[in-house]
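Work through this:
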Amino acid sequence: MIKLDYYFKNKNYLSDLFSKCTNTYEPFLYLNNYIDSITKDKKIGKNCKIGENVVIDNHVIIGDNVTINSHAYIRPYSIIGDNCVIGHGSEIKHSILFPNSKVGSLCFVGDSIIGEKSRIGSGTIISNRRFDQREVGVKIDNNYYYLKSDFFGVILGDSSRIGANCVTNPGTHIGCYSWINPMNKVKGFIKSSVQVDDGKIINLDKHELI
């Protein structure tokens, strides 16, 4: 369950990058060079709305019709897809946001891939480094997979939602059509089409989450 196609269904988005990748950690191995092949400055698409006091570093690609609200910080080697929304005061670092995804206010999203139509609620922290600073991994079905980096946030599948004031541990993998209810801490592998609340996992019909 560290295969990219379990989490992301859009085969056309960033195909030059994703086509050479099979596992979830692999896009990060190529991301910096991929962005530098397009721009070493910043590339901002059409009809974007950039709020006051937003900081956008170099080595950043932003698609069309993106809204970035005031005081947000977009750090190097990030890609924000078309029609995304970044909330007030949020920070995006070395991450890929598929089109039509949203990050609420006062969030941190680092070293992560956020799927299409996914949502991250306000005040949520995507932890991207182990407390002991060792290589990040994820345990799935009693198997432990190393993710080739000591910085790794979350893999958030398409049409999934993380509620307000949540924390995800480094290396968390969340499948498509899943909900993490507000004020939860999650880690490891969360399969597709479930709801997580107070450590309890409830199966959901994916059509309820679109």
Remarks:
- The mean pLDDT is 95.
- The chain is about 10% helix and 30% strand.
